[in-house]
Amino acid sequence: MKEAFSLTSDCFLVAIGYHGKNFHGSQIQPSVRTVQGALIDALKEIGWWSKGCLWIFSRTDSGVSVRMNLIRLDLPDRITKSIEGPSVITALNDRLPDDIVAWGARKVPSITSSRPIISRKYFYRCEVMKNWPQDVNLNLLEEACELFVGTHNFTNLCRLEEGKNPVRSVVNCEPWLNHDGRPIGISVTAESFLWNQVRRMASAITGVVSGEFKLEFVANALKNPQTPIDMGMGTSKGLILWEIEHVSLGGLGTGTTPDTRIFSKPPLSIRHHKTWMSLSSLEMSTMLNSEWIREIGLP
């Protein structure tokens, strides 16, 4: 999608969140429900819609939940000059369905683009994968995470789109610990990611801590991208786009960690894992709603 720039003096950057299970991804698609489609409907109802006025910064797949994505709104100058961020949030939330929410907004110069993104941060709850151990060797998990830090060719750990550069720089990859110190997954930070990259990284790391893969095996998959190696891909149900740090936002929405106090422990029996997955989805949805309420500042 070509990025549109407004001729007006200012535009709005808006932080939004949504429950991925209810959408077929973020980008507009015919005959299915998408985040972009829901936003367009809300903008039409407000009277703010015009072709090219909406830009979504990060594409997410079907089923991927989001605490924080960013959209850019280019509105007519007469509207932009007459309102501030809180009015944008209220107007959108009055028309958006209850599984998508706007919780932060900043008025910025219209020359602002999606490019000056400092980083994106994802959390992946590896417990949703059946081979995640009940008792995780934290040292081994840390070693597995450390393999991905730095600049690598991720051909073997993504769904590579035609014309895409497979090289990405991971700033941070570390264990995600719950409120009482139990390893439940990973967090990954980078400026940009490839399609399915985090879900494939999560599967490879889970393979290491479960004993399916050796550290050297995963390291070789990174060092030798010309040799195809498939280490699987985690379900979208475990993935959360947690935050986007942008140079124009002044730290809006960054620096927080998930509140996991309501997270339950997966059952010992693999037979019961499928039933527990429904509970896991509810826990993650509740956590996201609590985050949005806190960010909006509701009592």
Plain-language structure description:
This protein has two domains: about 10-110, 2-Layer Sandwich (Alpha-Beta Plaits); about 120-245, Alpha-Beta Plaits, CATH 3.30.70. It contains seven helices and nine strands, in the order βαββααββαβββααβα. The protein has helices spanning about 35-45, 75-80, 85-95, 140-145, 195-210, 215-225, 275-295, and strands spanning about 10-20, 55, 65-75, 100-110, 115-125, 150-155, 165-175, 185-190, 240-245. Strands 1, 2, 3, 4, 5, 6, 7, 8 and 9 form a nine-stranded mixed sheet that branches. Strand 2 (about 55) and strand 3 (about 65-75) form a beta hairpin. Helix 4 runs antiparallel to helix 5. The protein is globular and about 60 Å long.
Write the layout of secondary structure elements.
Blueprint: E1 10-18, H1 35-46, E2 54-56, E3 65-73, H2 77-80, H3 85-93, E4 100-109, E5 117-124, H4 138-146, E6 150-153, E7 167-177, E8 183-190, H5 197-210, H6 215-223, E9 239-246, H7 273-296
Parallel strand pairs: 3-9
Antiparallel strand pairs: 1-3, 1-4, 2-3, 5-8, 5-9, 6-7, 7-8
